[in-house]
Amino acid sequence: MANTSSGNLNLLKFEPKIKILHYTWLAFFISFYVWFNHAPLLASIRETMGLTPEQVKTLLILNVALTIPARIIIGMLVDKLGPKITYSTLLAIGGVLCLAFATAQDFETLAFTRFLLGFVGAGFVIGIRMIGEWFPAKQVGLAEGIYGGWGNFGSAAAALSLPMIAMWFGGDDGWRYATGLTGIIAMAYAVIYYFSVSNTPKGSTYFKPKKIGAMEVTSKSDFILYSIMQAPLFLTLGLLNWKLGPANLHMLSAPISVAIYLGLALIYSYQLYVSYSINKEVFSREVPEMHRYNFKQVAVLDLAYLVTFGSELAVVSMLPLFFMDTFGLSIVQAGMLASGFAFMNLVARPSGGLISDRFGRRPTMLIFLTGLAIGYYAMSQISSDTWLPLAVIMTMGCSFFVQAGEGAVFAMVPIIKRRMTGQIAGMVGAYGNVGAVLFLTTLSFVTPQIFFLTISGAAIFTIAVIFFFLDEPKGQMAEVLPDGTVQLIDVE
């Protein structure tokens, strides 16, 4: 952001909450740096490993697949264990997986470690709970926007720096040294983060969910909607299984593919049982008004994040190769130009949060998603005949609306139900990865131009859903202290 201070949020005043913000966005930055360390190096990986075009597209899809269940799991863990230990552990494990990817000698190992590295993408959820604990409602949108935007810039930093680092090491193994270095950085920062932060301000209570395993809902209709909204998470994993199975890439045999389908069906059935076990009381008695929240809000935010962050993940993954193949650029040039899409995170996502704080969550989302739809339509017109500077400007303009929309979504997440912020953020974040898998799968069958048009169409549908179904949180939310007393927390 141009100014170091916005309202009462001075980023150079190192009071405790500002320190937490800086430590946490840097943790997110490193997680994204690791998560997307392969994208700007795909051309080198493709050449040295002898990968086919289908194998390259498979790596792109695998990178975002595991993050779907991972964000749900991490959301539960952060609500139960706290952000401090959860973030530190995730970064340490991610660093080890990164070294395994860097030393892979065949496509199977490369694909498996890339799949596991998708777990690192769940780190975003952890910081949402941490920032929500440290900042009041009037600042939380901006703070979450800075956290998400500056941390998200890790993908742009990877696109800018890793090709040059790989060239500096040189040779066929340059990409291995570059990706391995990101893993070492992640493990080092895991230690720093653990010893530098605390879960809440001094004297504050860290509210935990009463039960873990599924989200708590507060009405029968909310339980039905929650059950429906869990289905796409499993269907998307089924789509990935189909893509990797005998009907397409032949990476999985028919028996294994069928077993995965059955496993997903069983897990979904079991998850519905767990959800009922945790929420069965809503079928026998009414939840007091002060303790209710509207799950419809979560469902709408799911769809909004599917289009915003889902499209960002997909575009960041494919854009370096798109620029390289469309304009005949070198790998370094393509990586630098493609980084413009993620570069806008520095300004756009905080702007989305700030505008939401000032002018309301719902109208802000509607405006930014409209800009997103127009932006992707414009990108669908890019071809080899397009003036390159104009293509870059169109890309960055679209990017602003994408990431500002993400900021608007997560300006609302922490003010729905405090003790379940991690789980809500986990579900909304998982839908971002659902979008990424859907859009990247679409890309594997169509041209980039049709790919961009598909995202634009999805945005138009989501705009209608927000217009008719999203309500602004009002007043206060209630949480119960360990001694049984009720604490009211402002949400506006």
Sum up the overall morphology in one term. Answer: globular
List low-confidence stretches: 1-7
Number of strands: 4
CATH topology: Growth Hormone, Chain: A
Question: Which class of secondary structure composition applies to the elements?
Answer: mainly alpha
Outline the biggest β-sheet. 2 strands, antiparallel
Q: Termini, distance in Å?
A: 24 Å
Description of the structure:
- The chain has about 500 residues and is an all-alpha fold.
- The protein has one domain: Growth Hormone, Chain: A (Up-down Bundle), CATH 1.20.1250.
- The chain has 19 helices and four strands.
- It has helices at about 15-35, 40-50, 55-65, 65-80, 85-100, 105-115, 125-135, 135-150, 155-170, 175-195, 220-245, 255-280, 295-325, 330-345, 345-360, 360-380, 390-410, 420-445, 450-470; strands spanning about 5, 10, 475-480, 485-490.
- Helix 1 (about 15-35) packs antiparallel against helix 7 (about 125-135).
Topology at a glance:
Blueprint: E1 5-6, E2 9-10, H1 16-35, H2 42-49, H3 53-65, H4 67-81, H5 83-102, H6 107-117, H7 123-134, H8 137-152, H9 154-169, H10 174-194, H11 220-244, H12 254-279, H13 295-327, H14 331-343, H15 345-359, H16 361-379, H17 388-412, H18 421-443, H19 448-469, E3 476-480, E4 486-490
Antiparallel strand pairs: 1-2, 3-4
Helix pairs in contact: 1-5, 1-7, 1-8, 1-9, 1-10, 3-6, 3-11, 3-18, 4-5, 4-7, 4-18, 5-6, 5-7, 5-10, 7-8, 7-18, 8-15, 8-17, 9-10, 9-14, 11-12, 11-18, 13-14, 13-17, 13-18, 13-19, 14-17, 15-16, 15-17, 16-17, 16-19, 18-19
